[in-house]
Specification:
The protein is of the alpha/beta class and about 210 residues long. It has seven helices and ten strands. Helices cover about 40% and strands about 20% of the residues. α2 packs across α3. It is globular.
Length: about 210
């Protein structure tokens, strides 16, 4: 998947889905300051990239997990790409809300899911993994057999690796932070002088930029 890693990283940079601003950092909802922001929802507006990601997900899922019974998307960012992947694989699709619906049927999982079905979860972005793993837990509470998760991009934080390991949920991604930085430097989106900041942030994101 190395070639896909580079291809997708390059296209995320081309469509400005990944933005760098070490001098004026972005602030995440967690309170962390970040020199980078990744918005993979933008991929849906570009048919060629959308198809590349869909087909790469299909290949990755088949190679790593075989053929599951159901594809599940994490709301809201992975609903569309999850549905496209399920359609390509001719599989049922469900999506998992971030919290239980406050009215109607009070669903957390939308769609038809049967007890014991084997599910692969599709996510757009993994940072710490906490919100992604909430979706995994919701599926397990409905007695689904979660085979693992696939995502477009991961920052590769150590805390994410630990969280997925603790929950016994394999994670495989199409692109990652290290591969993206390599492409960004090669293609001129970053200068060598930016790399130290970006590498320090990835090692200790909770404390970066606090001084």
């Amino acid at each position: 998947m190395e070639n896909i890693n580079q291809q997708i990283a390059a296209q995320l940079l081309q469509i400005n889905a990944i933005k760098f601003n070490p001098a004026n950092p972005f602030q995440w909802t967690s309170g962390w300051k970040s020199p980078i922001y990744c918005d993979n929802r933008k991929t849906l507006s570009f048919p060629g990239l959308r198809k590349l990601i869909r087909d790469a997900f299909v290949e990755l899922i088949q190679r790593v997990y075989g053929k599951p019974d159901v594809i599940a998307g994490v709301a809201t960012g992975a609903i569309a790409m999850g549905a496209l992947t399920a359609e390509a694989m001719e599989l049922p699709f469900v999506y998992v809300r971030s919290s239980q619906k406050k009215h109607g049927l009070h669903n957390t999982i939308e769609g038809h899911l049967e007890k014991g079905q084997r599910v692969v979860v599709v996510e757009d972005l993994v940072s710490t993994g906490k919100s992604s793993l909430q979706a995994v837990e919701a599926l397990r509470q409905q007695h689904a057999r979660v085979m693992g998760m696939v995502a477009i991009f991961t920052y590769g934080f150590e805390t994410a690796r630990e969280n997925f390991e603790e929950k016994k949920c394999p994670l495989h991604t199409l692109s990652d932070y290290s591969g993206m930085l390599e492409v960004a430097l090669r293609e001129g989106y970053l200068e060598q002088e930016n790399m130290q900041d970006l590498e320090q942030w990835r090692r200790d994101p909770s404390n970066w930029g606090q001084s």
